[in-house]
Amino acid sequence: MAATGASKTAAALPWRYRAAVASRVIAALGGGYALASAVAAAIAVHGQPLLSGSRSEGAIAGAMLGFVAYAVAFMTAFAARSAWRAWAWVLGPALLLGASVMKGGWT
Predict the structure, then answer these.
(1) Cβ atoms of residues 44 and 58 within 8 Å
(2) What does the pLDDT look like over 55-98, one tens digit per residue?
(3) Using CA atoms, how far apart are residues 89 and 80, in angstroms rounded to an integer?
(4) InterPro entries, per this entry (predicted)?
(5) What residues does each domain of the chain span?
(6) What's the rounded Cα separation, in Å, for the pair 62 and 58?
(7) Which pLDDT band, with edges at 50, 70 and 90, does 4 fall under?
(8) For residues 50 and 24, is the Cβ–Cβ distance under 8 A?
């Protein structure tokens, strides 16, 4: 029985390529979630003066911008030159925003 061309191509892919793609997927899903959460929290905590002083408006605006940040992080994870850069571009801002939220509080 002859194998199809698609199965030959899939079998020929090296494990490093597959690991890089898997790492990008995890960076996009997990790192994107971390970035979206950090953006939402940072806007909710620090965006209060910009949004007429209401905490509820800050929380809603943060949640909406979190969706945008998740989409951008997902695209960035696959547009980066390497899996390491994908992780850096996704987790770098997430860690900085998370640190700013942990340092500052409700005013």
Answers:
(1) yes
(2) 788 888 889 999 999 999 999 999 999 999 999 999 999 999 99
(3) 8
(4) DUF3649
(5) 21-103
(6) 6
(7) low
(8) no
